[in-house]
Each structure stands twice: as structure tokens, then as C-alpha cells.
Fold each of these.
Amino acid sequence: MRIIGKCIIFCLGFLLIGTLIEKYIFSVAKKSTIGQSGKVAMIMNHTVDADMAIFGSSVALVHFNSNILEKTTKYSVYNLGMDGNALQQYAGLLEEFNTYSNAKVVVIAGTNSEFGNRNLLYEPQYYAPYISNSKIYKYFSFIDLRTSLLLRYLPFYSFTLFDSNYYKEIFSQDNLKGEILKGYFPKNQAWEEKETNFIIKDKIDSESIKKYTDIIEKINLKGRKVVLVLAPIYIKGQKQLVNLDQVREVYKDLAGANNIFLDFTKSNLCYKKELFYNNTHLNATGADLFSQEFSKKLVELGLFN
Amino acid sequence: MLFNSFEFLVFFPTVIILYFLLPYRFRWALLLLASYTFYMFWRVDYAIILVISTLIDYLCSRMMDTYPLEQSSRRKPWLWLSMLSNLGILFTFKYYNFFNTAARDLAQVLDVPYAAPAFELLLPMGISFYTFQTMSYSIDVYYGHIKAERHLGIFALFVTFFPQLVAGPIERAGNLLDQLKQKHDFNYQRVTDGLKLMAWGLFKKVVIADRLAVMVNEVYNNPTEYEGIPLIIATVFFAFQIYCDFSGYSDIAIGSAQVMGFKLMENFRRPYFSKSIREFWGRWHISLSTWFRDYLYIPLGGNRVLKWRWYYNIFIVFLVSGFWHGANWTFIVWGALHGFYQIFGFITADNRNAVIKNSDLTRFPALYKAVQVGTTFALVCFAWIFFRANSITDAWYIITHMFSGLTESAKAILLNINFARHKILYLGQEKEVFFLALVFIAILIIIELAKRGQSLRFKLAKSPTYFRWALTYALILIILLFGFYQSNEFIYFQF
């Protein structure tokens, strides 16, 4: 009995210390205003809003210069792009944003691989403080049920996901100042990768299309327009993609008559290698040019009249 | 199943609880079932190899035992059958493609037609460990060192005992078989000691080894992008990575067996504090070194032969040891290099002793010891280059470039030209990853030093409960908060 008592006290002690540490880390993360953790926290705390909110993966994050867009459209803009996240993962965030936001337009940017089936969560640590939120958990569990269950129910599992970047971001002093670039993350990077010429056939998964359809409907129900953007792809890279036309068709169908699809794979930017740092990502110079081109198109469409 | 996985976190406590709840006579069945489950988490179909190996060795050993020791001619065919089947399995899965490629290359040079097909076979996890364990059993039965085990279930458990199935320690039947038949009652002290050892092993694996792996892989997978300092740092880091990875696995294996009451053999005894290469091999992967000593070196004649033959025996043992690690020229060179170190050490012993005597170094024992330990560590690190490099060409590049441009890279690091610190000091990682690696290596060294003489466990046992609990909490939290969890397998699983 003494031994069992000792074991129970030891475990309770560890549970207490672990819980205190976890609570502390989560409380810091929930106050974050910069980087990925900041975007998640601000959406979940309902403290970020703009007339135009931009969602998407890295092609949203590194392409849409919020300040340029604001200047041209005269409306407030916030880039909520999440690196490595397809809609299947950040859909919970978008749903949450949709519940409180006053945005007029929601931009969802993607690239050729947007409709592929995902079975791995990308950097789920940023969502860890909010895993018990039903919207976040629902989309997480579609992608990777095991990790989602562990993250939600196994004490301290989140600790195993945190890395130095995460700690650095949430404990950064910059959280006090907030994001000057309003979520935009320019990459001043030259093209370093070797060019390849192998053929890429991206899968188009009906489940992910359905998730797109559902989320677009929910946004439209709030009276907001959705602008679907197929981001620029370097012209030589486009030649490697055998089903880019199919991806375009899916985007067109998703936009339908009520929403807008803007295809930038036919833009002149795609012919200038110096504007890219790999096939699907523009560098800072390219992003500025892209942002100007994108905002001009929006103005032409009369979205902000 | 990996020791550093969630599955093991569920599997191990379940097995332990059932183990102590079950009556003694059923425990072997539980452990056998658990061991096969443990293995089949990796691949179900490859468990058949374990079954085949177990049945053949069981049959051979029982048949050997039907004849008295004097009738060796009747016992021998069964020993051969056991050896050939074990080595046959090992050859088919591990070495066939290596020899096939070598033969094809040779045929090409000689312009001779060659048509043997190549097979894409996945190497069964831990194959070198369990085949060596069963081979030692058959040899021991043949020489009459042990009696053949009659209970097929216990023997099958000896072959597959999950704590040491996939990466050792390679146990001897004389040590483990008897323990598998003994009754082990629950003992609080033993169980908690075992759990602490497991936690320490996990710390070495996920906090140190996997952290270092990120940096080492960056350099060793693209060596031609580096020269000078990063090649040196990556090599030293690899020395700690492989030590923490493998000794971490051994600690978890020994600790988990200890929880159930089994005492597995020690596999590492602070090897990087060795004062010579000979001493290093008495402290590194002890279960394999002693295996080679008992079943290869001594049968070859050991040191009771002419000098040249003795050197030959040493060289052969290290060459085979290198080949045991993998079917690749890099491992063979690594083994040969250690063989050369040993032989060179013996040949030059008198001259070196004379030089040391004349230099008065022995008057400063601490300094003398530091020089010996440092030299041994440097030689071991040099050999690790071949062990870790992806090819002989890469290893050669690293050796020929690791001391070039040292001044320039040092200057670049100091002035941080073009983010030099990030690229050549932190090996492409965040500086926190690099500095934390240094901190944890320092902790490892301090604890290894504290283990000298008296066991650290005994020292800690004298401290108050709150202090011991605080240390345990800190260890678990460090594992959770600073561990790298990207399903990294243990390096020795591939052998």
C-alpha cells in the first residue's frame, strides 16, 4: 500500500508540474501576435480582422504584400497564410474567422498541389492550445486522426511537438509590437534549387474539393465574396505539371458564378525566373509585383466600390 | 515498435502489469506473445524468419544433445546445419546484393558475362543481433558449455525477448536462458531503478542523439558543400550521436528487462574515457566485442600463436566486425582501421613508452591521462568518418578537406560574414539547437564522470526523496520538452 501511495503521489506531482508548464506555455502562445502562432492565436481570440483576409499556404504567406494591397484598394488587408498548411488543415481557423469577422472579401490562395489528399499534419504545434476547439479538431482529425487524438487527450503530448522555432516565436519580445507587415512574410531569397524536368501529376482528391465547396458556401452565407487564386508558377515548372489544366477547371467550378477565380499561372511574372526562388514561390521582388497585379485586378473587378 | 514511440508507451506498462499479475507458469507465454507483437509492429511477414530461425536452432541443439560430447562427429552436422541456416538467412537478406554487385563489377572489369539477378529485399530489423545470439547458443551447446533447452517456448523467448531483440545486448544463453525460467517477484527498488535507466536511455536518444542527427545529417549527406570546421564539428557530433543512440537503446533495453527482473549484460562502460583503442573495445558494444572474442578470436588462436598470426587474428576479427555492421565498403574500412589501430598500437608500444618516459609526461598523471583519452577519442572519431559517410568517396572528401581553410572559416565565424555562423558553426540549424546540443553533451559528460567508481544510483539513493524526485521530474520534462520526436529509428536497427 505504501508503494502504491508513493507511486500515486509521484504521478500526481508530475501531472501537476506538467500541467502548470503546459498552461504557462499555452497562455504565452495565446497572447502571441507574430508568426504562425500569432495568426492562430489572433483568429481564435477574435482579435484580427480586415476588409480583405488572405488565407492559404506558403503561396499566400510569401506572395501577398498586405501594405501594397491596402495602398491600392484603400481597404484593410491581413495576410493569414500559414506555411505548409493546405485548406484541409487551416479550414477550422477559416471557419472560426468566418464566425466573427466583418471582412468583405476572403482570398484563398493555392497552387497546383492544393487538392491533393493530405495525411500528415504540418507543424500542428501552432494549433496545440486550441485542439479542443471543435472546428480545429474536426479538420485535424480528417487529416491525421492518431496525432489529433494524442494531442487532444494524451497529457503533455503537445510538448513533443514544440521545437526551438516555436519557443522563439511565442516568447519573442516582438509579440508586444505585433506584425508590421500584417502577416506577410517576404522571402529575400535567390533561386538555389536545381531545376528538374521530371513530370509531376498532382492528385485531385474529391474529399478536399468537397471541403473547399463547404467552406466557400459558409463564407458566402455571411455575405462575403471568395476570391480563389491560383498563384504564379514558373513557366518551366508549369511544363512539368501534367494536370494543371484540371486544377484550373476545379478552381473555376469552385468559384462558380458567385465568386471569383484569378489564375496567375498565365501572368507575365511566370516568365521571369529572377522573380522566383523555386517553381511555385516568388521572392520579395516578385511578391511586390504580384501584389500590385493582384490588387489592380481586384480594383478592375469593382470589388471595393 | 520503437522504444521512443507512443505505441511502446502503451505496450510496455500493459506487458508489465500483466506480467506481475499472471501466475509464474504463464509468464513465458505472455513475454513470447509480447515479443512477437513488438517485432510485428515493424513488419508482420518477417516474423516468419524469427520462427524459422528458432525452430532450426531448437531442433539442432536438441539433436546435438542426444549424443555425448565425445561423439563430436555426430554432433557436428547439427552445428553446421544451425550455422549454415543462420548465416544463410543473414547472407540472403544482408549480404547477397553486396556480393552480387561486387561480382558484377569484377565481371565487368574482366569482361566476363555475369547474369545473377539483384533482389530488392528489405533487411529484417535486428537480424544481425538475433542470428548472432542463436549462433552462440548452438556453439555453446555443441561444446557442452550449456545443455540444450527442452522447452520450445522458453527457447523461442530467448531468441525473441523483446527488450533486446532488435539491437541487443547480444545475450548468451548461459546468462539469459536460466533467468527466463526463474520466478521474478515485484521489487519496488528494482522496478524504479529500471524505469530510471529507461528514462536516462530515452534522454540520450531523443534529447542528444536525435538533436545531433539533424546537424550531422546536414553535413554528411552533402559533404562537398563544406570544408574545415563544419566537417570537424559534424564528425565529433557523430561520435556523440552514435554513442547516445546506441547506448541509449541499450539502457532502455537493460532497464525494461530489469523492471521485469531480468539482468541483461552491460553494453557500454563510458567508452570515450578509454585511454587506448584496446580499452575502447573493452567498453564499447561489449556484448558484440565479447562475442567476437569468444566465437572468432579465440577459435582463430587468439594471442597464443606466432606474433604475425596474432596480428592476423586481430585484423580478421575487426574486419568481420566491420562487415557485421553493414554490407558496405565504408563499414569494412572502419573495421579494418580499428584492426590497424590495435596492431600498430602493439607494434609501437615499446617505442611509445620510451618516448613518454623521456618526456616526463608520467610526472603529471592527470595530463598524461587527458592526452591518452584525447588521442583515443581522436582516433575513434577519425574511424567514425568511414562509419557515417555514405560512401568511400564521401569519406575521402571529408578526410582531405577537414583541415583545409580552418583560418578562413574561423575568421568568417568570428565576423559572421554571410551568416557564416549559421552555415559552418551551427551546421545549418538555429543557434539554439546547436548550443543546446553542447549543453546536453556537457551534462552527459558530467554524469558519465560522476559514474566513476561508485554507481550513480547508489550515490543518489543516499540523497533525500524530494531531491531524487525533483531530478526524475526534471529528466522526464527535459525529455518531453527538448526531445526530437520525428520517428527517428535507432541507428543500430539497420544492423
Amino acid sequence: MLDAMHIPGSPHLRSDLPTDLPQDQIERVQKILDQVLTYLRSQSRNLPPEADLALTYELHSEVDR
Amino acid sequence: MTILEAGRALRSRQISCLELTNRCLDQIAKLNPRLNAFITITEQSARQRAEELDRELASGHDRGPLHGIPIAHKDLIATKGVRTTSGSRLFADNVPKADAHVAEKLHAAGAVMLGKTGLHELAYGITSDNPHFGTIRNPRNPEHIPGGSSGGSGVAVATGMALMATGTDTGGSIRIPASYCGVVGIKPTYGLVSVAGVQPLGFSLDHIGPLTASVADARVSLDAMADGSKRKQAPSIVRDIRVGVPQNYYFDQVAPEVREAVHNAAKAAEGAGARVIPVHVPDIDAISAASLVILLSEAAALYEPYLDRQSEIGVDVRALLYQGRLVPATDYVNAQRLRKVLANEFRALFRTIDCLFTPATPITAPRIGQREIVIDGETLDTRLVTTRFARGFNALGFPALVMPCGDSPEGMPIGLQMVGRPFEENLLFKLGEALE
């Protein structure tokens, strides 16, 4: 059952997963998201102040200069 | 036949643009029913265009290396008056009123468009097993996938149905089919090729580039697709190029034949005069995780208005779109922030090297429908394995060229990935041409 799954996303959205998705796809969604978000959160716990939202192309323009 | 060979034949009058176009159309007629590389074939307009270009060449008007060269566009690149489906039922009747910027540029360079190539639905996947337009098959073994999402483009070039095909790459979608089909593909620096008129997937990760039969062909194709003045000049000789070979991550959980072929490519680069340096790469899992979270979020936001038509979306893509809706905004923002930190770490690495050699994919093309694969005794998700070495460079935006570097014992192609600093595609071409 979906409710029993540990999806580390917004809890109120879990019920938005369409019920007609095959069970294996739902499990895949849960498993991959769990792994990826857990890792991302562990890595982004102590981001330095310079970690802002500058877009990639701006970064590359800097490199280019 | 490569673009450069065809160009020589055209200019020495050994062949005409029309004959070259007819050769490709014959090849499409012969192979497409089995391999399903094309969704739309624009036979009549291709012949008309080829005749026009023959007249131009005869009158002394030469548009350059792509004059009279038959090409194909991935079917999410808008083409004026020609249906552009994005491999989706949602856009099955979409007939653009104008060309995408990149299609316009290639047309102006003298290319002949043969048609539109198939792709994974909405470019959101790596198998090119499309529920609406059929399964695209690997030309080396039709029971295997060609990779994706630009699967039709990879197949078209590998079989000579087209001399070049455009692709898009949000998490490896040019490089994976290049690796699995045994052709060359380049994901250029982020922003180098305009995305105007191309169906997006991940706004801050989307790249456009060519798939070709040779590195030199990729170079001349990219010249036509983007403003060349942004690209830095390559070193004059290969001896000046420092090639980094990772000592961590990139050779873990890799098929033995892939590991061997990429190490052999590094030896060949050394033989050509490059300096090979063992390096330790920054945390690839972190950049891959950030890249995946960004893609899931951006694609979900893009297709949110279409979710009331979910019965028209295939199961795997629908699952990904819903997966993206489960990513909290805080994680998306932190993924973007982490991206900047890791880009700085990679820039530091690239102060000690000019180019990084990695496998393009840890495995050769899996079978159609194969969901899991066993490497080093561990059972792994085929999709995650396939994108493992490619995805991070979409978040970093660094250019990455894939070229063939051998075959597996089963005869499936193995791809080498060469990564460079932003706007240093020419260095990758220089080294790639030396290896060819």
C-alpha cells in the first residue's frame, strides 16, 4: 500500500500517485526517490554561502572570461 | 560514407546531391520497416531540396561542408510544415509553423532533411521503446535497444540512412545512443546550441548536438548548428593535451570489456602523444543525484498541465512525471545550489587536465525490455546504470563527446566519453580525430 511506503517527498502528494500505475512502477518511484533524495540531503546539509542559484550558462560565461 | 567523403564526391562531381539523397532514401526504405528509426520520411521535399542544391553547386554557390548532405531531425525539433510529435500522443498532430533555430541553421548550411527520427516518448527515457510509435531497434542486434532518447537518430546514422542526425541530451540522450549504436555524438557546452523551437524536458539541463559517423563530421555539423566564435581554439598538437583517467568511480561496476576498451583508448591517446594522468574525480553520485532531482522537478513542472490527459502518456514516462511531483521545492533548490559547488570542484579538476576519459556507459546495449542487469555479482536497475556516467555532465554543462572504442565479444559497440572544459569542444574533436 502506498501509505506504508516511505517516500521522502511531500506527504500530501503521495496520494496523487495514480492508482492505475503498475505496482512495480510505484515501487520503482519510491525506491529511486528515496535513494536520490536521501543522498542529496546528506550532501546539501552544509552548503557554503557561495552556493547560490546562478544559472549554468552564467557560470560558463565566467569560465570563458 | 561520412559527410567529409560525401563532400569530396559532390565537389568532384562523382555524385550529385540528388543521388546522395536517393541513396539514403533507399537505405531508409530497406531498413526502416525493421529498425523503426524514422517517424516521418519527407521523401518528396528531400528530393526537391537536393535538386535545388545541385543547381546551386553547378552555378558555383557552395554553402560549405553540409551542402547537399542528407540529414534527419529528432522528432522534437520543430520543422516548418512537417509534423513534430516529440514521440508523444500529446503532440501527435503538432505541425509547427516555423523551424527551430537549429533546423533553420542546418537548412541554411545546405543540409537536406530526409525526415524525423523516433525517440523515447517526450525524450524522457533511455530505451526508445515507444508505446505510440513503436520500438526502435539496435542495428547491430535488433533484439537490443539502441539507447535513447535520441534512439532513431543513432540508428539512422549507424546504418547510413542519414549522414547526420540531430539529438537532444538532458541526461545522456545523445551520448547513450551514440555509445549503444557505435556512432559519434557530442553534447556541447550548455547553451552553445540554441534550444529555440525544441521541445524542452529539463530547462536547465537540455542540450542539442549532432550524431554522426565520424568525429570530423561531428565537428563540421556543430560548426553549422552553433556560433563557432564562442568555441575556443584547439591546441595545435595532441602532445599538449593532458588526459585524465579516473582512479575512482568510473571503472567501478563496469562490464570488463568496457573497462578494457576505455583503458586501451587512453593508451592510444598516449601513443598519439597526449599526456595521460591518473586523477581522482569529485563526488559523481552527488552531481548525478542533483541532476536527477532537477530533471524530475523541471519535467514534472513542464508537463503538469498535461496530467489530465494521462491516459495518453506511457506508463514509464507517467511514473517519472508523478515522481517529479513528489520532490519538495527545498530539494530542488538545494540540488541547484549543490550543482554550483560541484561545478567549482570539477573546474578545479580541469585545471590539472584538459580532458577526462570515461566509459560512455558501463555496459553495452541491453536487450529490449531488460529491466535489470548483473554487474560484478550485483543486480542493478538498467536505466540507472545506463545514465550513470552521462547524467552528471548535464548538470555541469561541460561538453562531452562519445565515440566508438571497440566491440564486446557479442559484437555490440562500446563507447568512450571524453569530457572537456566549457567551450572547448575543439580540443575534444582534435583528440577524437587523432584516435580515429
